Amino acid sequence: MIAAPEIPAEFHLLHLLNKSYIFFRLKQGYLHSRIFRETETHFSSDTDFEDLEGKNQKPGKGKTGKKGKKGLGEKGKCGNEGSKTSSLNRINGHHQQNGVENMMLFEVVKMGRSAMQTVVDDWIESYKQDRDSALLDLINFFIQCSGCKGVVTAEMFRHMQNSEIIRKMTEEFDEDSGDYPLTMAGPQWKKFKSSFCEFIGVLVRQCQYSIIYDEYMMDTVISLLTGLSDSQVRAFRHTSTLAAMKLMTALVNVALNLSINMDNTQRQYEAERNKMIGKRANDRLELLLQKRKELQENQDEIENMMNAIFKGVFVHRYRDAIAEVRAVCIEEIGMWMKMYSDAFLNDSYLKYVGWTMHDKVGRLLQKWPNFFTNLDQNNTFFCALETLSAAIKDRIVSMTLDKEYDVAVQAIKLLTLVLHSSEEVLSAEDCENVYHLVYSAHRPVAVAAGEFLYKKLFSHREPEEEGMPRRRGRLSPNANLIKTMVFFFLESELHEHAAYLVDSMWDCATDLLKDWECMASLLLEEPLNGEEPLTDRQESALIEIMLCTIRQAAECHPPVGRGTGKRVLTAKERKTQLDDRTRVTELFAVVLPQLLAKYSVDAEKVTNLLQLPQYFDLEIYTTGRLERHLDALLRQIKDIVEKHTDTDVLEACSKTYHALCNEEFTIFNRVDIAKSQLIDELVDKFNRLLEDFLQEGEEPDEDDAYQVLSTLKRITAFHNAHDLSRWDLFGSNYKLLKTGIENGDMPEQIVVHALQCTHYVILWQLAKISESSSTKEDLLTLRKQMRAFCQICQHYLTNVNTAVKEQAFIILCDVLMIFSHQIVAGGREMLEPLVYTPDSSLQSELLSFILDHVFIDQDDDSNSADGQQDDEASKIEALHKRRNLLAAFCKLIVYSVVEMNTAADIFRQYMKKYYNDYGDIIKETMSRSRQLDKIQCAKTLILSLQQLFHEMIQEQGYNFDRSSPPFSGIKELARRFSLTFGLDQLKTREAIAMLHKDGIEFAFKEPNPQGEGHPPLNLAFLDILSEFSSKLLRQDKKTVYAYLEKFMTFQMSLRREDIWLPLMSYRNSLLVGGDDDTMSVISGISSRGSTVRSKKTKPATGKRKLPEVEESSSSDGMWMSREQTMQTPVMMQTPQLTSTVMRDHKRLRPEESYLGVYPMQPEQHQAPLDYNTQVTWMLAQRQQEEARQQQERAAMNYAKLRTNLQHAIRRGTGLMEDDEEPIVEDVMMSSEGRLEDLNEGMDFDTMDIDLPPSKNRRERTELKPDYFDPASIMDDSVLGVSMF
Q1: Taking Cα atoms as reference points, which of 1090, 1084, 1128, 1088 lies closest to residue 1106?
Q2: Cα separation of 971 and 442, whole Å?
Q3: Please, what sign has the CA dihedral across residues 247, 248, 249, 253?
Q4: Does this model's pTM top 0.70?
Q5: What is the model's pLDDT at position 58?
Q6: Least enclosed by CB within 10 Å: which of 323, 695, 716, 1007?
């Protein structure tokens, strides 16, 4: 065996410096150990400190015992007599060597301030001197790292087996806390794990040449860690598993070094043996042969150690119940495969990979795919990956749809590697499961799927011949790949998501996606001989993909939903962006007019092509001498405007003119002239056609109507992006709309576009006035036009055509919103003459439109495309339109444009069948309205309930069944309204009180025509109003109750018939809080204010007496006496206090409640009862006591109620009068204050509650069935101990 020095010479100085630092830091420990040593020397009769080193053998191979695993006790007995002398240097099992070994191995690792190699070197020195003592320190180090306060003594080390020592340490565990060093929080403990792992790695590295082969140290450590890893205590199991896995990793590194040395030695031996006989050195051959033999023996021993750890720890713990333990095993076996792939990257170990891939914890699933993607991709790797994929391919494919995105990303990357190793492993169905993920909203998943797609479909390109010029255009190698992309896009049937497909492949296929020259050639050039031309559908898809690639290159951010916002570009990215825009402009400035000319009649293709100039660098038109191509582009745009009437095409032309009309560039004049000429022609044509169209006495011709409509659509599309004020379009459009109202036969689409065009005229006039100093005449003109236009829209709200009414409604809401009182905000007081407030008639018409066109059944909406109401897409589109209409009206409510009470008809729909469609909009409207005005919002809510109640009365009459579905629905709506007020009662105090006030007035508004002996007609509404009683403060309940009594007669308070139940239930809901509080005072649990007063006035000695409690009235009583001139009714005598008062607001465990309330005094001559008998007896006693207290409370409540009713007849007060002393403390009185008051009035010396400690949540979790047999290391007595 090759012997090497344990500590290299270059580390001696560092070793001395660090050791001195440790001794300096632990000076107190050293002095403490000296005192104990001197004390032991003085009192011990057999103390002998002479020749300590002579009694210890130097560790060597094969000298200390048999080969194989032994228990700790067995190891302590064999080998040498050093254990006797070592026991002399121990106090209570702690090794005392210069005061630093006593628990200092754990302390030094925990501090992490010293070089770990120095710490290990110190331990190695102590091991050479006394290996039993050093091993005992190492054992205690692992025990302490587990959080155990117990210590393994020398006596235990010599005479006890592993299971006995572990059971003893289990009993020493601290049960107060379930934390241990590996799970503790804080920066120190976060660093401890890395220091702990580093210590194990350095220990094996420093001992790899001799000590680990002495068949003593490693056997002892492995035996200990194997036993601890089977412990039922989580701390032991987790810590020992981590230590064993890190020990295994260090041994794998040693085995790898041995393998390399063996290969080198074998190569040297072969080289020496192949020499000629005369030049061959036989001595060297013998040395090399001996060295190889020793290396082989060492490797065999290392393999035995690794097998012991793998089979004793890993095989059991990789499926542990604790995710952290499983994670340790998964991470480390991955490291073994990466470090020593020849030994571990085979079927014997890969099977554990397949099993752990079915783990349900996402962060564990993520480790395996991530590990494989980081492995060296050699032949061994690909063979192993192919074997693994064939076994668990379906599981990997299913992981691509995991709910945790990180797991899905790593799974897709692993499938990409599988695809690289062998394309035959994955079937077409498996690949399709990954293909559709390129449209995922989560960008990392989409990018990973894009890489997979590119690897599968686009990585095979035709090789280019060397020396030949690069082929471009249709002859480019990318031509077939672009066609493949088009085919894939069409087959995916997601034609509106080309931007997402491009973004998914942007990182891996940039060169392909930026080959715009090839794309343009495929669109313009004729196909080659034998090549199939692109179909019309394929050409449309190619144009859409080309547009998306240009947009991605110019904007440098993913599409909507794929990113959180625009990020700051780096210098390199900005340069790439500028270069791409230059390439796009240089290419398409020439090609775009040709493409527009070819596809000028295809609306879909033209719409996409017209968006390209938005991404041009317009300066290149001048610098590149491309003005003639600009003129060609303008001619094509004008030609397209004349040919098309589709709104999308016309708006695309308008946006293109807007993008080209940039005053910063020299081409502005050229483009502006062309645009003005086009608008002049359109306006002249419109005025001429309109004059003929509106001639009196003639029926409108269809051709004339079409000409007017097409021209009006072109003008409206351009007016959206351009200021056309100088053409004065308001007069002609107003005339057209006015004629439509008078005659009533105007075509629907003409009215719709005329309304929209007039709306643009108003907005552009407002923008012009706001940006520049305008005259009063301009303001008056705009004011007149705006009000006249609103009247026109109001008339069209009653039109027979639904599209006209919807357009008029949307425009009215926008105009009212823009010209509301908020127009003067931000220093724009000069616009005050433009403020327009809708009158009541207009508000009513807007509300009626909402009720008639929004809150309708889906089947009733006949305004769907081509009448295909059954089509799901049409239903979704119709619902989206109705939601926009409702949102437009709700904006008027929350911004105080219309009266808030108009929202009552909206709020009443909250719990009906429209909740799924509009519930979010209505709820947000309620929330915003409450922020605007709490009281008015509450009035609106109660108004909506009153409307529903009134409608129910009209349908069912006054003698309705209160259990009927309509009434139950109104109560449920009231309950939902109550929940929207939240938990902060102080913020909604006035609003809730006003709500009750309006509700009470409504309930007693209509008296019964049969006389006072019969209830009011709306009395049942009080049953609905009671849903809001829980939102009242305690003192406000009394005030509302007093207000209720103003409407009641003495006969009403005495009626108990069923017809009066709403009144009784509402009164009871108002009396719930006050009675409980009074009982609390009488029972000795006073309010915070009375507690303070009683503490100030009570004597220094003695306890608070019950009469003092009766004299000190609560704050509620004081408020009532001042507010309502009522005297606190005389209460019954306070019941005897028990321990249940102290636990009034805390839910007791069964054992606490029974033993605490009824302490049992066992008799001397009575036989002890069993547990079940005791529990039965205590339950019966408890029930009797609760029944007695409930009867007393009911009697007191009735007495108080009678007194309140008598005073209420002669009393009248307003609602929500200002309190002289607002009471807030009583509402949320803390339990501490109540306990302090109780402690002052009770003597707890007579009661002693001694409950057994209960297991906390962590304890209960740890006692769940585990994946191992604890009986192998513990007997039944150990299993009964409370553990974590």
Answers
A1: 1084
A2: 43
A3: positive
A4: no
A5: 36
A6: 695
